[in-house]
Specification:
- The two termini are about 15 Å apart.
- The protein has a single domain, classed as Glycosyltransferase (Alpha/alpha barrel).
- A hairpin with a 4-residue loop joins strand 7 and strand 8.
- The strands form 6 sheets. A 3-stranded antiparallel β-sheet has the order 3-4-5.
- The chain is mostly helical and about 400 residues long.
- The relative contact order is 0.13.
């Protein structure tokens, strides 16, 4: 497993990060382009706020981490992070303080702030950049955004919600799982006591209410009381979401020195992976129905980059924690599928994102409306960190 650390670090530093450095910066208007072809050309100039924030967070985190081969490279990464931070600070927020979903290339708003994940990643970005430049305004933006997220969490879309909540109220898994990670990301601003308070409420929600004890699977939507709702939404499984959430839980468990939480997250992670694996063509399904009915999502059988990369992170963290041979076996299997199908051997750099069920490239793009500089580099970074020195059992 130690040899993977070198491979993943090399891919991060020599292929993926240079791709985004070379092709994504908008020097005319600020911010980043994310709609990029395999050859590096920009095919659409709209800017999606959550992807702007994710890229700013990624470069800020890399700059702070000591990963850079030299100080000039670390300084360059900080400059790239600030390129996004400045654009977001100037154009990203509506008068309400909530963050728009998308902007045109010059920063004029296109889509209203209906999606709270713009806010989540903006808070992450400004929190990360504050570690590099302790300007009080960055801290204020991160904390104000975080408090606004908490105020909106019971009705994240607010006036933009298209459902009639009185008829079938549901709570969704995505925001609690993101908040678990976001709280850890902002601990330097929130303080340990506040983080402990937050995770004390969030962990049982993720690990108990959304967890279906009868099947061992994690539901995407449940009733406000935490019960199963027999409908398309209530039966929905998203294996990648659940697996990603479990490595967030592992991080919390290790922070709290709670071995039982880490072990429970490990067990749940394996169950989602085993249930979500396509035994015919390989890879992990995007969506499933807990009762085996046809999911309403027509893209249910696609294979997506982030699902596989987050799975590799979870497996790497598991193996680093306890050297479980099952984690090693699954890591080898998922690694082989992921590197064979998502990595582009011709136009290297960033990876493909969308495959059909058979594993063939479905959309020939390296970035778009939903894919930016985040899951691939974050996974490469997390995995290489986890597995470095693992043979010496020094994790």
């Amino acid at each position: 497993m130690h040899s993977y650390a070198t491979l993943y670090r090399k891919e991060l530093l020599e292929e993926v990060i240079p791709f985004w450095e070379k092709y994504s910066l908008d020097y005319a208007s600020g911010g980043y382009f994310t709609c990029i072809s395999p050859e590096g050309s920009v095919y659409d100039k709209d800017k999606f706020v959550w992807l702007q924030a994710r890229q700013a967070w990624m470069f800020a985190s890399l700059s702070k981490s000591g990963t850079a081969p030299s100080k000039p490279i670390a300084d360059r990464w900080q400059e790239i992070a600030k390129h996004g931070i400045d654009f977001l600070e100037q154009y990203g927020r509506a008068p309400s303080g909530d963050w728009y979903f998308s902007l045109n290339s010059e920063g004029a708003p296109l889509v209203a702030p209906y999606n709270i994940f713009s806010d989540c990643f903006a808070a992450m970005a400004f929190g990360a950049y504050y570690k590099l430049d302790p300007n009080p305004s960055y801290k204020d933006i991160a904390l104000a955004t975080f408090e606004r997220i908490l105020a909106r969490k019971d009705n994240p879309k607010g006036p933009y919600n298209k459902t009639i909540p009185e008829t079938r109220p549901l709570q969704n898994f995505a925001l609690p799982m993101i908040l678990c990670n976001l709280a850890l990301e902002l601990e330097h601003l929130l303080g340990a006591a506040r983080v402990n308070e937050l995770v004390a409420a969030l962990v049982p929600l993720v690990m108990e209410q959304f967890y279906d004890t009868a099947t061992g699977l994690v539901l995407e939507n449940i009733s406000p009381e935490g019960t199963f709702v027999d409908s398309f939404e209530g039966r929905l499984l998203n294996p990648g979401h659940a697996i990603e959430a479990m490595w967030f839980m592992m991080n919390i468990g290790m922070r709290l020195q709670d071995s039982k939480l880490v072990e429970k997250a490990e067990a749940i992670m394996f169950k989602q992976l085993e249930n979500g694996w396509d035994s015919t063509h390989g890879g992990i399904f995007y969506f499933l129905d807990i009762k085996g009915h046809p999911p309403q999502q027509l893209e249910w059988d696609q294979k997506l980059w982030w699902v596989h990369l987050e799975t590799l992170v979870a497996l790497a963290k598991t193996y680093a924690y306890n050297q479980n041979p099952k984690a090693k076996e699954w890591f080898n299997k998922v690694h082989q599928y992921t590197w064979t199908h998502f990595r582009d051997p011709i136009n290297k750099g960033e990876w493909y994102g969308y495959l059909n069920r058979e594993g063939k490239v479905l959309l020939p793009l390296k970035g778009g409306k939903w894919k930016g500089c985040f899951h691939v580099p974050r996974a490469l970074f997390e995995i290489s960190n986890c597995l470095e020195g693992i043979e010496l059992n020094d994790y």
